[in-house]
Amino acid sequence: MNWHNLLTVYLKELRDSLRDRRTLISMIVVPTLMIPGIMLTVLVVSTKVVNKAREEIPTVMVLGGDDSPVLRAALAANPKLHLVRTTTDWKQRISDKQLRAAVEIPAGFDAALDRGTPVEVKIYNYEGELRSGFAAGELRNFFNNYREKTVTARLVGRGLPAALVKPFEVKTQNVAPPEKVGGNLVGGMIPYLFILLCFTGAMYPAMDLTAGEKERGTMETILCSPVARIDLVLGKFLMVLTASLGTVVFSLTSMILSFVIGGSLFASSGAGVAVKKAAANMETIPMLDPVGVLTVLAMVLPVAVLFCAVLLAVSLYAKSIKEASSYVSPMIIVIIIPAMMGLLPGVELNARLALVPILNIALVSKELVSGVFHWNYLALIFGSTCLYAALALGLCVRMFNREEVMFRT
Amino acid sequence: MIETRHLTKIFHDKKRGEIRAVDDVSFTCRPGQIYGLLGANGAGKTTTLRLLATLLRPTRGGATVAGFDTVAESERVRASVGFLATSTALYGRLTARETIAYFGRLNGLSAAAVAERIARLADELDLHEFLDRRVEKYSTGMKQKTSIARTLVHDPAVLIFDEPTIGLDVMTARNIVRFVRDCRTRGKTVIYSTHIMSEVEKLCDIVGIIHRGRLVAEGTLDELRARYGQPDMEEIFVRAVGGEGEEAA
Questions:
Q1: Which CATH fold topology does B2-89+158-248 show?
Q2: Cα-to-chain-centroid distance, residue B193
């Protein structure tokens, strides 16, 4: 290996790529502007939609209950419900989202309550529809309160304490540290994001530096120079790795900045107040273990090497960028499936799964961001991924030495 | 000096089976000589030159270029060769200066030597006007001049030209022909492949006619004219390959 030539190739590829609009878009513009932009937009829009739905006073239709004026009056007096006139097409109106929910009151409800006879109230809603769900929830709250008031009134009427039917309270409290809660909530997403960014960042440069060069005729020019194939491969490989890791670093920096800057802007908005309220309801504010996050980054490094080498080898086989993208694009699915499997509940890390590339990183990362370090698995995963990366790089060098690949017609 | 000995290259194609692209070709080209490799499209010219430039490995036989074996000493061969073809393009996003410097450094030249070579080549080839502009903005003529500078940056002893004038306008093609002649004057070993008869007549000291991978005739222009009893190169070529029907086949 000639380090001077390797470095010369790398620096040339770096300069060439930094002048390429498409590489800049995939390496810098997309991760720094688009991804955080999309994420923030989704967060703001979804919070606003949920808040708007929550703030809406739902339209509710009361079915029956003409002989129960007390209940009807209580329902009408509830400021959180907007009662509408009863019609026969209430089912259709719920389906058409013109009506959020309906409540059916059995005949003689007030009288049955006075007698102490059990009765059944039915709530009709549109399952899975957010606003209809809120309306049904509001109705359930109303009837729970109404029931409690009725029970309390009966107990008091008989000279008994109200606590008679509520002898004890049940309360759930979290004991896991905040980073474990955070790791459990978003731990699986972190490596998923890193893996995807690593791959997408390497895709275009890998195709441009191999199939693109063949297409433009510059591959033959460089092969005529005295540079050894291994120096040429490693120089190109380092450039693709730079683009891949650059994409991750730019994305991370941009996401952190946008959450810090965007978060402060967001906090002053109405949507921010709602998020704050939601956070206040949680006993533990989820956090991520910073050392764990950095370890995930270190674990992703051999994966990036593996991706870059495989992408270079696959793209090199193609005669044009168009052909290369038809080979490379389906590989995203191959990457996503094991990364997503790591998000599934119940899939736990073991020695066998520690040897499955990508899935192993996804599984161990969940533990890492929670602050749990399984050193034996970490060593096994890092070692096996390094081995796969070395094999892929070896394959790449071999491909560069095969004339039927380099001069494929 | 270039010397080939029973040089053979066989490709295997799933549909067509075994293809003998170069079949038992032996010839010698000495310093200060232009060896013209004349043949129709697909005759085996490019494969022969790629074998000499070490881009391909021979199936049988061998070749030495500037005293180095093309298989055992491929890197030293490439360091002694300047290869120019229509298929050897330039990096569009680099300038001419960066392109020449890149190939100079890969050929082991120091930074000072690269700067000195760029200055000299820019004077000789009149590159100054566009030396620091990106290649993608060049005209065909500018690109061709930059390619020549790239080929000459390490002052190679051997120059290989594979149909370098294809697709070029008359003025640019004339510049190439003049440059090839200059190489001979400087004592370089030059091999020039073409299917343009007039270029052969203008340039070549020795002509080798290649047909279906085999070297079917070789000699100076006068020797070939005497052997085939024809003054016209085109007629000589047609007779050497076995007649018009054979060529069309």
A1: Rossmann fold (3.40.50)
A2: 6
